[in-house]
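Running this now, will post back.
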Amino acid sequence: MLDIGWTELLLIGVVALIVVGPKDLPHLFHTLGRLTSRARGMAREFTSAMEDAAKGSGLDEAANSLRDVKNIASKKSLGLDALERATEKFEKWDPKRPAPRKSVLPDPAAPAVAETPAPAAAKDLPVADSPQRQLHAVRRSDMKDD
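Update: finished.
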């Protein structure tokens, strides 16, 4: 309560011994003890009177109903915790970074697929300069109306 350690109490005792004197010091401590016990008793009475007044006014019932409403409206019961997790995943997601691709290995137990020869018409088509063409999405705001 007052956060007084042993060294502080010892210092107070030495100062009291010097100021009051050794003859009246026991009487002073006895009086101080009685005053402390009276103060504690008054604090207990005040606390119990306040608790009785709170019970009489229905404040406990209101606190219980508020606690029930808080439990009902928790994030978990409303599903907001799942929404927060999904939001975090979406914020961490980078659309420019390609998703990790899993290498597809043929199942050794599956029958082998025979390769079909390419049609003859495909040989006559012009070959692109690059072996792989990449397509990118274009935003509508990037397109110009000419």
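The chain has six helices and no strands. More later if anyone needs it.
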